Amino acid sequence: MRATINTIGQYEGQTVTLGCWLANKRSSGKIAFLQLRDGTGYIQGVVAKDEIGESDFQQAKDMGQESSLYVTGEVRADDRAPSGYELTVHDVEIIQDTQDYPITPKEHGTEFLMDHRHLWIRSSRQHAILKIRDVIIQATYRFFKENGFTKIDPPILTANSAEGTTNLFHTKYFDEDAFLSQSGQLYLEAAALAFKRVFSFGPTFRAEKSKTRRHLIEFWMIEPEMAFCDHEESLDIQEAYVVAITQAVLEEAKAELQTLGRDLAPLENIQAPFPRIRYDEAIERLQKKGFDISWGEDLGAPHETEIASQFEKPVFITHYPQAIKAFYMKPEPGNPDVALCADLIAPEGYGEIIGGSERIDDYELLAERFKEHQLSEEAYQWYLELRQYGSVPHSGFGLGLERTVAWLSGTEHVRETIPFPRLLNRLYP
Fold it and tell me: Ranges for the Aminoacyl-transfer RNA synthetases class-II family profile domain (predicted)?
């Protein structure tokens, strides 16, 4: 009967057939040990010459790394095996004998591995990272469904920018200018006024010429928007969401975390509430640590890392100066120079994973912001009309999937947290 490695325990003592690839092998006299993978897990197949015959045994020994095959054998419990089981092989049917596989157990440079990303994702480490990504994605859909959110898909081609910046990819939309979306937020605000709680989950594009370990050109964002929701309630929802995906990874990706050698203690500590400090306090903390930074300046990666190091959980930095934040952020009542916003900074030096704010819900104030930021009222007329017809207090946030995968998996660079990364100098494969 056909089986998969992740369900192999159901067939202890039975004979099964696996469709798999040869990840590695070693032999000792009349016994060969095949490290097999089938996309769901790894298992060792033990091949004895006396069991399958000399010709088939020699063929099994000579197979190259990543050869594809059908393996039939008896499932046996083995406490020493990572999966708890191994396969006593009775028959090997080679589908393709692969020779000279480019990625070998020796050390390879990053550029070489990135050039062979289509093959590199087969390795145990890359496989584990991308499985953790999948767990986060599945947990995301569960969380928002359980909390009354409707999935909305904003357009990828847009006529304007959500952030009012110039870091956009330009294209032609027949005889009009268009841009690849850097955020679905504006459209989600419209949807929130129709469905109350909505979220999107899709690719975003930012033409930033950055080479840091935290940046990609194309990345995936989870963006919820909530009507009748103020800044503080939004922070509570952000906390609950981050706790939910962290717990999902701890519970559903144990094997993958083990493969990566991830220290679980910091993740097990991720419980609400998270500490919340105002931007003013963050600046004071940084100045006390010797950083040359003044009120009104934005925080960079070193600043975020320092603040995060002072806490054991993710930390919210709230109430940034309005001048360094987006035009749509609502000012703090009685303090118009400060925005009702927050960035969530992950522990262990992984930086900002969420940015969010309460949105301006007043028509006149938003129209004024358009003028201050020199935004086209014609292009944004539909967005302004949301404040004209049934405007309500509303808030939202965006979580960067790849940065979150990097943090939860303990991966240093975001290029390993997406199947095929798009970087400043990389569009292949």
Answer: 130-429
